[in-house]
Each structure stands twice: as C-alpha cells, then as structure tokens.
Design a protein that fits this description.
It is built from 6 helices and 18 strands. By secondary structure, it is of the alpha/beta class. Strands 2-1-18-17-15-3-13-14-16 form a 9-stranded mixed sheet. Strands 5, 6, 7, 8, 9, 10 and 11 form a 7-stranded antiparallel sheet that branches. It starts with 46 loop residues before the first strand and ends with a strand.
Length: 371
C-alpha cells in the first residue's frame, strides 16, 4: 500500500542540530493506538521490516517469520526488565490534579519524576508550573517532594520550563506493593484507552523496574523463542530499566540503571571472536552493552547508571544488528540507529515503512536491521 501524501520530500537530507538524523511526517493513521491483540492479532502477528545494510535490500514480512532471517549461532541479547505501574494520581497543595510518572530510581533513594496534567480523562500532557520544595500528595497518604529540576540547563529566569525533577517519595508500603495497589501503566495521547499492565509486559521479563515497556521484545512468544533456540540461535539476558520516553525536542537521554551479567558479556565476546552476529533486541540493549564495551570491542560485566549517548560520531562496538520499533521524527534514538546503519540506509528504510503503512510506537510494528 502506498500512501499518496507520503513522499520522499518529507525526509530532510541534513540532520537538525541536536535532533535525530531524520525528520519526517508521521501521519496519525500510522500510530498504533491499541495492542495488536485488540486488533485481532497475536503478539507475533505484527509486521516486520527487515533491512540489510550492505545492499539496502528491504523485506516485508510478519514478526513470526523472524526465524527465516536468523541463523544458527546468532546471538540475541534481550532486556528482561519488566514494566512497572509507574503512573500515579497526584495533587498539588492548591488542589490541582496531576499525574506523576516515576522514571528512574537513583542512588540515595531519589527518583527522576515527571508531572503531567490530565483533562477529562484524556491522556496526560507535561506540566511545567512546579517549584523546588513542592510536595505532591499521592494516594494512600503517600507524598512526592520535588528537590531540583533534573536538567541543569535554564534552571532559572523568565520562561524556564522543567519537565523532569529529582524527587523523594514517602510511601506507606514497599514500592512494589504500593504501585501494585495505586499505580497504572504510563500511556500517551496516541493510546486513547487504558490497558492492563499485562499488555505492557514482555513474556521473558524477570525483574520489574522499567517506567515504560522495552517494547522491541514485545512480539516474542514462548513458542517463537523455543523455535529459535531449537534452530541454534543463542539468547543472552541483561537488564536496563527504561525511564519515561516522552522527551522534549532536542532533550538528550538521561541516566538509566543497567546490569550486564558476566555470562552475557562472555557470550557477546565469543560471538564476535567467531564472526557471528550479535543482535540487540531494542535500543536499551545497545545502551547497556555500549556502557560496558571498551574501545577494543571487548564487553565486560557491569552494573550501575548509564548516561551514555550513542551517536554516529561515537559509534557502536558491541553489536552488529538490531531489532527495534519505529522511532518518531527527531527522536534521539535515531542517532543510535544511524550509528549502526548510516543515515542514508535509515532514510530508505523509513520511507519504505511510511509507504507500506507500518505502525509506530510500543504496540506497533518492528524493524530488523542486519548486516
């Protein structure tokens, strides 16, 4: 299917300053507004675009056919972080109702949080009129105290806008129990209806901690994973707890917690040594692996909070292939994709995705970038 109003002229040849390497028009019709299950599909029934960097070949298929493009000896590295019910109803001292999104749990029991305002049960929008020291009332007698803006840029002066804050939570119960009782999944305007947390969980999640689902792995099913393993595809886990994915234009990625086990690092190094493909399932996997991979391309075990930002100038050393969703115009994730696949290849792939009507966002279709 070709969309008549999508033309190559929507793709800008030169990257915008501080933005991703592509800018294009994303029609509302191509935003996935509900889980595939609600559209009559299975998890692995979403579409898959496979693009080859070496010759710019593009193949369109369904995700359940991904095994046709993988080989015995390929190493899939997956992020087994589970999704929290990271959104909470909140209220300012003047009674203004807000929605508080928990993003990243920092050392000293601090949190990166985002306050958003809701209107008539519609999805929330960023709220900027908060002040340092302000206390937000949360359900069950809990409280969030805002300390300082997360960003050190433009912290004062007329018109200063602060989306993310460093905060302390005071809860009446352990975090996991509290969120289970009072929290709900984060969603944005393109998903008009709320969905239970089960729709935001990966089948291989082992440790809850992500503010939003590491969605590149959502289409895997137990049966599909079994078939890949039987084919000889290796699978190695790591953890990266994702933060909120609603950055302002030109806002750089922020710190996120990661853990790369020694066994996973060893498998990555062995795959490279024997000339096999290392395929990251999601940009979160690349960020975690690049944090612990040295300039010689050796990957090490590690744990902590990463602030690594991957650009074409920095390059990628840990993987040579990627399974990912489709990213929004000017998204900083596109710099990471360009570091792997070049901007020119991405232009071709994204033009094809637009022309073929692929769906964007966490409930949408997927893109496999291979050498």
């Amino acid at each position: 299917m070709t969309l008549p109003y999508i033309t190559p002229s929507h793709l800008i040849n030169a990257p915008l300053a501080g933005a991703g390497p592509l800018d294009f028009v994303l029609p509302p019709e191509l935003e996935a507004t509900a889980p595939p299950e609600a559209r009559g599909l299975s998890r692995d029934g979403v579409r898959l675009m496979v693009s080859y960097r070496s010759d710019d070949r593009i193949v369109h298929t369904q995700f359940r056919q991904i095994g046709d493009f993988l080989e015995a000896g390929d190493l899939l590295v997956i992020n087994t972080s589970g999704t929290m019910k990271a959104a909470l109803n909140a209220r300012r001292s003047d009674g203004t109702p807000l929605e508080l999104h928990l993003s990243t749990h920092l050392p000293a029991d601090l949190w990166v949080v985002e306050a958003r305002i809701t209107q008539d049960e519609k999805p929330s929008m960023p709220f900027y009129d908060l002040e340092a020291g302000e206390r937000l009332r949360l359900p069950g007698g809990a409280e969030a105290r805002l300390h300082v803006p997360h960003s050190r840029r433009d912290q004062s002066g007329p018109g200063a806008r602060h989306r993310l804050w460093i905060a302390t939570l005071t809860l009446p119960a352990p975090l996991r129990d509290y969120l289970e009782q009072y929290g709900f999944p984060i969603r944005y305007s393109y998903v008009p209806e709320p969905w239970p947390i089960e729709y935001y969980q990966l089948v291989y999640a082992t440790e809850t901690g992500s503010a939003e689902m590491p969605s590149a792995g959502r289409a895997f099913t137990p049966e599909l994973i079994t078939a890949l393993v039987a084919k000889g595809v290796q699978i190695a886990p790591l953890i990266l707890h994702t933060g909120v994915a609603s950055p302002e234009a030109n806002e750089p990625p922020y710190e996120e917690f990661y853990r790369v086990p020694a066994a996973t690092a060893a498998l990555v190094n062995m795959a490279h040594a024997s000339g096999r493909r290392v395929i990251a399932v999601g940009t979160t996997v690349i960020r975690a692996l690049e944090t612990v991979t040295d300039e010689r391309g050796m990957t090490h075990a590690g744990e902590g909070w990463t602030s690594v930002v991957i650009t074409p100038k920095r390059g990628i050393h840990a993987v040579n292939a990627l399974l990912t969703g489709l990213h929004e115009p000017q998204a900083t994730h596109l710099w990471m994709l360009a570091a792997l696949a070049t901007t020119e290849h991405l232009k071709l792939a994204y033009r094809a995705a637009l022309q073929e009507g692929y769906l964007w966002h966490e409930f949408g279709d997927l893109h496999l970038i291979l050498p």
